[in-house]
Design goal:
By secondary structure, the protein is of the alpha/beta class. It contains ten helices and 14 strands. Strands 4-3-5-14-6 form a five-stranded mixed sheet, covered by helices on one side. A three-stranded antiparallel sheet has the order 12-7-13. It has a two-stranded antiparallel ribbon with strand order 1-2.
């Protein structure tokens, strides 16, 4: 496309947006006669009338409407590309609000806070730990972290971790005089540490699957918590069977402090993702945060 053709298209788009030759000319810093000449040349070149003009108004024809719809997207992309270049030239700065469940905060956010602050001192980072699956758009958050199975479909998602498994575990002290469960239904014969969803929610029904068979078990037990760290400590202390993410209990299994069972009933499911609203241009501060957290998470994939 020649420079004159691009100028004509910009002139046409400005007129449609302003609904006025005079206002469009002022915006483009050209004279109204020069703007009229550009439109005449454009219409002559493509052989189609694009604007309906009267002494009081101007509006696009059907062909003009169709052309403007395509041009608006193209110009937005071009302006965004230029904005991205300018942003990359400058140090990322500004405020950034992140919403994460506690388990993700401890795994992905806590280990990088110091390094991120030192790398980007001009970014004011706010991390809100929230286990209620808040609406990040309604809550005016820039991004969040969730399990893949709980992501909303209209979000942009970046994978942070490997696929996960749940793990049923107990301490040797608890299992000393008890039979290890070989089937999820046998959990009804045991003291299980129940988990209540934060905010006074329902009790979590332990989920198992093997082949095509899936089970949800409403376990029984005298201890209920709403925090996985507390559940881990209770299990280590012999209070009962815990059902947690594999990575949370793996170090204790390797040290012989916990015994894992029902592993064949624990299929993999999507891990953690950092997600944000689907927008054409990601702010530099958010881009810096995504890259920083992902670099850390990728080392664990």
């Amino acid at each position: 496309m020649r420079g004159s053709e691009f100028t004509e298209l910009k002139a046409f788009a400005a007129i449609v947006e302003e609904r006025s030759f005079v206002r469009a000319a002022a915006r483009l810093r050209v004279s109204p006669p020069a703007l009229s000449q550009s439109i005449r040349q454009l219409e002559a070149r493509i052989g189609v009338r694009l604007l309906n003009r009267t002494t009081r108004s101007v509006s696009p024809t059907a062909a003009g409407d169709a052309l403007f719809a395509r041009l608006a997207v193209a110009f937005d992309e071009l302006e965004g590309a230029v904005a991205d270049v300018h942003a990359a030239r400058d140090r990322p700065a500004g405020s950034l609000r992140i919403n994460v469940p506690r388990v993700a905060a401890m795994r992905f956010i806590a280990p990088i806070l110091g390094d991120f602050q030192r790398a980007y001192p001009d970014i004011a980072l706010t991390v809100i730990v929230d286990d209620t699956l808040a609406d990040i758009v309604g809550g005016r958050f820039d991004a969040g972290i969730r399990l893949g199975e709980r992501l909303e479909k209209d979000m942009v998602a970046v994978k942070l971790s490997e696929d996960l498994q749940m793990a049923a575990v107990a301490a040797l002290a608890y299992l000393e005089n008890r039979a290890i469960p070989r089937h999820p239904q046998e959990l009804h014969q045991h003291q299980c540490i129940k988990f209540q969803w934060p905010g006074g929610g329902n009790l979590y029904r332990w989920e198992f699957a093997r082949g095509k068979r899936a089970l949800e078990i409403a376990v029984e037990g005298s201890l209920t918590v709403n925090d996985t760290e507390l559940m881990l400590h209770a299990a280590l202390d012999g209070a009962g069977i815990a059902y947690m993410f594999d990575y949370q209990v793996r170090p204790w299994i390797e040290r012989g402090k916990l015994v894992r069972f029902l592993e064949s009933w624990s299929p993999s499911f999507p891990g953690f993702y950092l997600y944000h609203p689907s927008t054409r241009h990601v702010p530099p501060a958010l881009r810096a945060f995504i890259d920083f957290v992902r670099a850390r998470g990728m080392r664990e994939l």
